[in-house]
Design a protein that fits this description.
- This protein is α/β, with parallel strands linked by helices.
- It starts with 14 loop residues before the first strand and ends in a 5-residue tail after the last helix.
């Protein structure tokens, strides 16, 4: 692994290169950083964005690179950066390529009490997927608290706006208008987000994940149904909420909210344009059933917002 560049001085303004800044995630990151006075974003000439030598030169000159690329291209970019030796920049990879790879830190800062520090110290951070962000946020604290056994058969249902599907899906909704109003997908049960969901939820039994997409640009709901009387100790919904509240106590971007004001309904677009994520426990105590729900903007905490959070941690700007 490449050696570390000299630590920034207090007087230095850290520099960032977004490799793939023309894509949806890259544009969102660029927009979020546009108003930052403590980070300088450097760009490559559009005509040279696929030129390895030009990209290597820019990588060599910056403190951190954000990869907003397809998986194979992200792997190639990492190899290019590693070839720079002691001039190699730190990397946040927004692709799926390195989320469960050795030598990479998972970029969900609220995963546990140590994760933000691990991100801050890491040379290589894998930005989480949008769906796993919501699912892991709900499941991991309850597994850690012993309320959900690691071998419990978990099902995760989720719906996202079409912007999470990339260029081709966006075009099918906005340009050709050939996409359906709503559809389930990933029904072969091999969705690319399952490995990180499985690993970082600390589940030993592979969860069932059922994603879906609707005819709206952004917004996300992730839900996990539970039969409370099948869990150890038969916890109440209040026990689940208390465990989530304890885990996220003091978190800036993740909050646990009361279910009652929603009156059994929850909208999907309410957090659009923010980097916030809300968690709630809906329940029917008479039937010993509960549904855990996470609400977020799939382009916010589910992608670009999380990337900016990780960038700032790695550059020592948010500790």
């Amino acid at each position: 692994m490449a050696t570390t560049k000299p630590r920034l001085t207090n007087a230095a303004t850290p520099t960032v290169f977004i490799d793939g800044e023309a894509g949806t995630t890259g544009l969102e990151i660029r927009e979020r950083l546009a108003g930052a006075t403590d980070i300088a974003v450097r760009s490559i000439d559009p005509e040279r964005r696929k030129d390895p030598a030009a990209r290597a030169d820019l990588m060599r000159s910056v403190d951190l690179v954000v990869l907003c690329l397809p998986d194979d291209a992200a792997r190639e970019a990492v190899a290019l950066a590693d070839g720079l030796g002691e001039d190699a920049p730190r990397i946040v990879d927004a692709s799926t390529a390195h989320r469960v790879a050795q030598g990479w830190v998972y970029g969900f800062a609220e995963l546990d009490t140590a994760q933000a520090k691990l991100i801050a110290q890491s040379r290589r951070v894998a930005n989480p997927g949008c769906y796993p962000t919501g699912a892991i946020a709900l499941i991991r604290p309850l597994v850690d608290a012993g309320l959900i056994p690691a071998d419990y058969p978990i099902t995760v249902n989720a719906v996202s706006g079409y912007s999470g599907g990339g260029k081709s899906m966006i075009e099918s909704y906005e340009v050709t208008r050939t996409a359906p109003v709503f559809e389930l997908y990933g029904l072969g049960l091999e969705h690319k987000h399952v490995p990180e969901l499985h690993a970082y939820s600390r589940l030993s039994k592979r969860p069932i994940f059922v994603p879906s997409v609707g005819n709206f640009r952004q917004g996300m709901l992730v839900s996990v149904p539970l039969h409370l009387d099948t869990l150890p100790g038969k916890p109440k919904a209040g026990d689940l909420k208390a465990a989530l509240g304890a885990h996220y106590n003091g978190a800036k971007l993740v909050s646990v909210v009361e279910a009652e004001p929603f009156k059994g309904r929850i909208g999907i677009e309410d957090l659009n344009g923010t980097d916030q994520m809300q968690l709630a426990v809906f329940s029917n105590e008479a039937h010993h059933q509960a549904v855990l729900v996470a609400r977020l903007d799939n382009l916010g905490k589910g992608a670009s917002g999380a990337a900016v959070q990780n960038i700032r941690l790695m550059l020592g700007l948010d500790r």
